[in-house]
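Predict structure. Chain length: 172.
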Amino acid sequence: MTHLTRYAATEMSLTRVLARKIDRWGRLQTEAGEEAEEVARACRGAKGAIAGVIARLKELGVLNDDAFAAARAKRLRREGKSARAVSAHLAAKGVRGAATEQDPARELAAACAYLRRKRAGPFGAAPEQKILAAMARGGFSQATAQRALKLPREEAEALIASLWGDGLSPAG
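Prediction complete.
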C-alpha cells in the first residue's frame, strides 16, 4: 500500500483511510452499473477484513503507534508546541495513552522555539501581552511563557538547539 510509504500512520488513521478507499471503490462500482447489493456485500466484507490487515501490519512492524507518537512528539516539540498541544495532537491521531514528557526544561525550550517562530521575546518585538495570550492558547503555562520571554537570545538559542539532540538546529 502506497499510503504507508508516503505518510506516517496510526492504527486509527489507517483504518479510516482503508474504509474511505473501500467506500470510494463501492461508489465507483455502483456508478459503473454493478449490482448495488453485491457491491454493498463486498464492501462490508472488505471493511470486516480491515482489522486483520491492521493486526498483520502491526505484527510485521510496519504499523507502530508508539514509534509514531515518539517521532511526532519530537517533531512538534521542535516546532515549538507545548506538551499539552502535543498530547492533544496525538489524541486526535488516535494514539491512546501516549505520554509526552513533562520535563520543564524541554517545555521551556519548546516555548523558545515558539517565540523564535513568532519573532517575539528574545527574537523580536511583538507585544508581550499578545504573545502571552497566544502561548496560553498553545498550552504553555504562564510561568513558562514569562520565563521564555525574559531569556537572553543566546540562552534561548541554546535551549532550542537542545531540542534537536545533536545540538545542530536549523538556522532561525
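Summary: The chain has nine helices and no strands.
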